[in-house]
Design a protein that fits this description.
The protein is of the alpha/beta class. 32% of the residues lie in helices and 24% in strands. The strands form 2 sheets. The protein has a 7-stranded mixed β-sheet, sandwiched between helices. Strands 2-1-4-5 form a 4-stranded antiparallel β-sheet, covered by helices on one side.
């Protein structure tokens, strides 16, 4: 785990001074985050702090009104999601993340829709190596899976195109504490171990900080502080910061 910004891997995804919203006053303002290969960077904050808005802006679902976003050094600011997927970006939304009427195997094949037909089987095998629990579910319909199994399948689908960067929006939403811990400690950790740069938006801050290398705390649409996840998780005033109160001085970066 990094102890300073100098210890972080070289960034694949960089969002610089991003401002965005849905018309009218911006939801997020002047937000900068990054994620490097094999790293889990987590964005935490209270409900309404702008976490999902930031992620949707990065993955091309919302066009920013300010700032710049790059992926592997290429400016991708304002590009739509379909083009970004072709560029090496993966995205697992909080809702509508699988095709319920299709089997697990068919869902994975759909995830590889841009691959040449003769490469789909090999790529599926690689995904099953990363997420081996999916192997026993291949013939089951997605509608018959548990919430945790569906989220695992959604992650697997996103891996079919071998993304260098993966954005995860609240992957533990509506899951039990036990399933949430499994998704974060096992599945998400395995993604980083496979070399993917992971940017995770997560409401379960304590769990997310346990697996992340770097953390950003979003308050009222701005990054209030960022630093090594372990240091932020150890802060006694973290709850106060969530509520927008002034943080005490520490080694982490305050904004």
């Amino acid at each position: 785990m990094p102890t300073s910004s100098a210890d972080r891997p070289a960034p694949i995804l960089i969002a610089e001074s991003v401002t965005s919203g849905y018309g009218g006053a911006p939801v997020i303002s002047d937000v900068s985050v990054q994620a490097g290969r094999g790293e889990i960077a987590v964005i935490i904050g209270a409900n309404g702090s702008g976490k999902s808005t930031l992620l949707k802006t990065i993955v091309g679902q919302i066009r920013p009104t300010g700032g710049r976003i790059t992926l592997d050094g290429e400016d991708i600011t304002g590009r739509d999601t379909a083009k970004l997927v072709r560029r090496g970006m993966g995205y697992v939304p909080q809702l509508n993340d699988v095709f319920y009427s299709l089997s697990v195997s068919e869902n994975l094949e759909m995830g590889g829709y841009l691959l040449p037909a003769n490469e789909v089987a090999a790529r599926r095998e690689r995904v099953l190596e990363i997420l081996p629990a999916l192997r026993d579910m291949l013939g089951r319909d997605a509608s018959k899976l548990s919430g945790g199994e569906r989220k695992m399948l959604a992650i697997g689908r996103s891996l079919m195109l071998n993304p260098t960067f993966l954005a995860l929006d609240e992957p533990t939403a509506n899951l039990s504490p036990k399933l949430a811990a499994s998704i974060l400690h096992e599945q998400v950790r395995q993604l980083a171990d496979a070399g993917v740069a992971v940017l995770l938006v997560e409401q379960r801050a304590t769990l997310a900080l346990e697996i992340a290398g770097w953390a950003y705390v979003l308050v009222a649409g701005r990054v209030r502080l960022d630093g090594p996840a372990a240091e932020i998780g150890a802060r006694e005033d973290l709850g106060e910061i969530f509520l927008g109160e002034e943080p005490a001085k520490s080694a982490v970066h305050t904004r």
